[in-house]
């Protein structure tokens, strides 16, 4: 709370300045010296320049430099690639949108643990033979996990229902789209889409995910576009990613 006090005071002071002037209009009162002190402290602590009068009244303006500074400090404190990848993924745009959805007891604990890098259970050996650590993230990439296909189908159904709701007919997993290897995209209209879920902390991705947020998604998108490059002359291909 102490880290929010300075920005909260400045936002409150400026948003009520006109009311204060009205109240004290007929009363001789000393100038608010504390406001000047706190403005100077805010600038020196956060290395931010003070704007010209009138000063902003929104709390977000006064707190934004502090959030940026804190994010940088937390990022620099991460010691290994997995921690860096988790932090970058959690700070990416829209990464917290799921927090606005209604809570689901069956997956809420798992989602929060993944976001914060918390332990989900005890280390053990997966039925595929891989060693699973306490973070439990192997289940996201294990090819023998029954939920893996179910998650993919659920995402594909969401895309299809969205198109149908907009009055656009769509065909899931169409056959005969000049695929030489026999593989099929997940759906087709004038738009062809393919849903891909990539784990930023998977062993094959974590090094790239620790370098820059969104890099793993860009890699997967490029790979999908190359896979369906033959369709580009007749359809608009769209990779749908969930990193």
Protein described:
This protein has 243 residues and is of the alpha+beta class. The protein folds into 2 domains: 2-77, no CATH class; 97-242, no CATH class. Helix content is 47%, strand content 9%. The chain contains 9 helices and 6 strands. Strands 3-4-5-6 form a 4-stranded mixed sheet. It has a two-stranded antiparallel sheet with strand order 1-2. Strand 1 (124-125) and strand 2 form a beta hairpin. Helix 1 (2-15) crosses helix 3. The longest helix is centred in the middle third of the chain and has 20 residues, at 146-165. The model has no long low-confidence stretch (mean pLDDT 81).
Salient structural properties:
243 residues; alpha+beta; 2 domains; four-stranded mixed beta sheet; two-stranded antiparallel sheet; 6 strands; 47% helix; 9% strand; elongated
Number of strands: 6
Query: Hey, roughly how much beta strand do the residues contain?
Result: 5-15%
The secondary-structure element order is: HHHHHHEEHEEEHHE
Report strand order across the widest sheet: 3-4-5-6
Classify the secondary structure makeup into a structural class.
alpha+beta
Shape: elongated
Helical content band: 40-55%
Distance between the termini: 32 Å
Radius of gyration: 26 Å
| Largest sheet entry | 4 strands, mixed
Mean pLDDT: 81
């Amino acid at each position: 709370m102490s880290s929010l006090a300075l920005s909260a005071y400045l936002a409150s002071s400026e948003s009520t300045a006109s009311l204060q002037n009205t109240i004290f209009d007929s009363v001789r009162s000393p100038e608010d010296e504390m406001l000047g002190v706190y403005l100077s402290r805010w600038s020196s602590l956060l290395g931010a320049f003070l704007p010209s009068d009138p000063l902003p009244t929104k709390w977000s303006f006064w707190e934004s430099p502090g959030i940026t500074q804190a994010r940088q400090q937390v990022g620099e404190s991460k010691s290994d690639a997995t921690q860096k990848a988790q932090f970058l993924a959690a700070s990416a745009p829209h990464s917290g949108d799921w927090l606005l959805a209604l809570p689901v007891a069956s997956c809420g604990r798992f989602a929060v643990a993944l976001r914060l890098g918390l332990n989900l259970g005890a280390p053990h050996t997966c039925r595929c033979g891989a060693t699973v650590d306490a973070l439990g993230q192997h289940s996201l990439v294990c090819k023998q996990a029954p939920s893996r296909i179910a998650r993919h189908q659920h995402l594909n159904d969401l895309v299809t229902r969205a198109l149908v709701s907009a009055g656009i007919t769509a065909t899931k997993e169409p056959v005969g789209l000049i695929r030489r290897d026999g593989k099929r995209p997940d759906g087709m209209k004038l738009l062809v889409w393919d849903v891909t879920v990539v784990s930023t902390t998977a062993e094959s991705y974590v090094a790239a995910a620790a370098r820059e947020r969104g890099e793993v998604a860009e890699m997967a998108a490029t790979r999908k576009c190359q896979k369906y490059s033959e369709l580009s002359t007749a359809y608009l291909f769209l990779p749908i990613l969930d990193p």
